Amino acid sequence: MKKNPVSINIDPDAGFCTGVHKAVNTAETLLDRYKTVYCLGNLVHNELEISRLKGFGLKILNLNQLAGLPVNTPVIIRAHGEPPSTYAEAEKLNINLIDATCPIVKQLQHKVKRAVEEMAGQPGRIIIYGKPGHPEIVGLMGQADGKAIVVQSQEEIPDPWLAEPLEVFAQTTANAEAFNQFAVDLKQRAKQCSFEKDQINIHHTICRQMKNRKPSIIAFAQAHDVVVFVSGSKSSNGRFLAALALQANPHTYVVTAATELTADWFDTAASIGVSGATSTPHWLLQQIADSVRKMTL
Ligand code: SF4
Fold it and tell me: What residues are in contact with ligand 1 under a 6 Å CB criterion?
């Protein structure tokens, strides 16, 4: 018996966020002009996109390798940003730094820097809610001149600190619900410690594009019989969104490439959704959708 045609939809909200889009565009423009362009760290958390760009001459290096480059070599700073020490090092070495820091991350760096300056000589602390060692956090800590601490839970903040002014920021890619809870708990603790005045200033600095993906991936996963979620293996945003999709629809499969697709997944499906992380390129979503289509003909 002939099967009814299966509908295959690419999630309109999936794919590069504006920050990653800008960084990849910058790399492509430079690769048109130069044979070889360098990037400090992986430009985007997607292996296939990195390998596509490497095919055009992109090379990934770390900070220690800057010293080995010829004068005026173009080196991209990716969307996560870098601490001021990287800019100073590049200037010393006469490296041509091309800054593709996401404007939202840049704004957060300025806010942290301003908070540190305003607190100079006064009691108080700068708290950054995020993942220690994450490149964005490394860049933010660089703005704080050693005066900030990174935490992942409010238990890491000792009671006596709650009596002092606290300027609290979140990594742009932090989980919004977890951060809101963190902020509520922190203020609650300050009250329980009977500190006369709440001096905790919470800055809601999580990127709106990240926040909006949560309700959108849940609705998208619920609207399809089967979901194929496409993400690089090292993308934490990909892991987060894929887990949400899986919760919303147990027939969710996570892949990094079309070669990982299995025809059995689609046996009884009438509608198939293809979604991905903020670091998944659109061409890859399209490639996966095309492969799924061939498997369901
Ligand atoms: S997730 Fe938001 S803050 Fe992070 S790079 Fe993308 S647009 Fe910028």
Answer: 17-20, 79, 102, 104-105, 172-173, 207, 209-210, 278
At 2, list the tokens.
Answer: 């002939």
CATH number for 71: 3.40.50.11270
Query: Residue 190 C-alpha to ligand 1 middle, in angstroms?
Result: 32
| pLDDT tens figures, 187-200 | 999 888 877 677 99
Angular region, 254: left φ>0, alpha ψ -120 to 50, beta rest: beta
What is the tally of structural domains in the chain? 3
Domain end marker among 188, 206, 224: 206
- Give the nearest ligand 1 atom to 80 CA: 5
Tokens of 215: 């309700």
Q: Which ligand 1 atom is nearest residue 23's CA?
A: 5
Determine contact, residues 1/265, Cβ cutoff 8 Å.
no
Q: State which of 101, 121, 145 marks the end of a domain.
A: 101
User: CA torsion angle for 120, 121, 124, 126 (degrees, to 10)?
Assistant: 20
* pLDDT value at residue 3: 62
In angstroms, what is the C-alpha Rg of the chain?
A: 22
So which residues are the catalytic ones? 136
Centre of ligand 1 from the C-alpha of residue 140, in Å: 14
CB atoms within 10 A of CB 158: 7
* Same structural domain, 213 and 175: no
* Banded model confidence at residue 5, pLDDT cuts 50, 70, 90: confident
**Residue-wise pLDDT tens digits, 65-120:** 999 999 999 999 999 999 999 999 999 999 999 999 999 999 999 999 999 999 99
Which tens digits make up the pLDDT trace of 236-270? 899 999 999 999 999 999 999 999 999 999 999 99
Which amino acid residue places its CA nearest to atom 5 of ligand 1? 19
CA–centroid distance, 172 to ligand 1, in Å, is 7
